[in-house]
Amino acid sequence: MAETAAAGFIKVIFEKLANEALIKYVRCHGLQSELNELGSKLSQIQALLNDASHKEVTDESVGLWLNNLQHVAYDIDDVLDDVATEGTS
């Protein structure tokens, strides 16, 4: 289901937030508060995913929302990859 894929992807994003290159980049550019805010928002998304997993089966709109969320997670992942790559340069 979409919830499982999105939840797994959120876990990957959390792991990337702990990447040393990303942390170095964040420190060098004074982005600590933004990174903390992103982590907080991801925690909220994870809680919503847990709730949505029960509703996806009976509510088609929840499935569509989860699909859109998965696309957002891919975009976040791409940005974190770019930042981590720049941090190692």
TrEMBL record:
The protein's name: Disease resistance N-terminal domain-containing protein
Pfam families in the record: Rx_N
Location of the Disease resistance N-terminal domain: 10-86
Keyword Nucleotide-binding: yes
Record GO terms (molecular function): nucleotide binding
Top-level taxon: Eukaryota
Gene3D superfamilies in alphabetical order: 1.20.5.4130
UniProt keywords, alphabetically: Nucleotide-binding, Plant defense, Repeat
GO BP: defense response
